[in-house]
Amino acid sequence: MSRATDHPPVPTPPRDMPTLLGRPADGWRARMFDVIFGTDTPAGRRFDLALVAIILLSILTVVLDSVPAIGRRYAAQMSVLEWTFTIFFTLEYIARLVCVQRPMRYARSFYGVIDLVSVLPTWISLLVPGSQVFLDVRILRLLRIFRILKLTRYVDEYTRLGEALVASKRKIMVFLSVVLMLILILGTVMYVVEGPESGFTSIPMAMYWATVTITTVGYGDITPHTHLGKAIASFMMLLGWGILAVPTGIVSAEMTSQKLSRHAPRGELRTCKSCGSTGHDPRAQFCKDCGAGLAADQA
Description:
By secondary structure, the chain is mostly helical.
């Protein structure tokens, strides 16, 4: 006698940002919401394309303004462009707050913070005294480059990469902890082997050298002089090749797993009862995340 196959429930996908923010029922706020957040409408697509073009132009202005010859010759034009972009992005930010039902949720979101940071430096510059007193205020101008992060909401791959990084954070943290232990151990060994005569004046300085070496950067400001030190350095250089590939493999595997989960037929999705992870292959015997056994479907 056979029993019916019990498929695990398919998890509900997370709601997108417009759903979380809340669309007004009707009126001009609802129409504005459809234009600003409605990427599936003709008006929304036109707004997104125009906004992407303006973002790119504003970034180009910041980059060109940093060139001394261009900045001095076209200072007035650059100032007009910067204030034009700032006023536009400020109005856009206010419009996003006005047309949603939960404005504080948007203000605290990643995109809300980026939108605010992209306009604040120019407005703050009005309150700052002359640059001859506060030369460090130039860092505020550099913050305008954060506008490039506004592009992340228009490219789906950014979202996929972000999801893969978040899902891989535990594995990456474990990997980084192992790398830090290697840097501490090998740096301490080099401090003992080489000593202050070769530039290894302290364990932190030796750890700096180990970091530069294991990442295959090799500034050359500190170098080993003994035969044993050179042997250790050679080992660390070879080790660095393998280490650099690990994070890429972790994130790539997670992105592949997410892609398979998204494209798998709904009836084939299986959920681990131990950790709740889903998207396992129908033939899998163990959970890909926690290693627990998966109950086989019986016909």
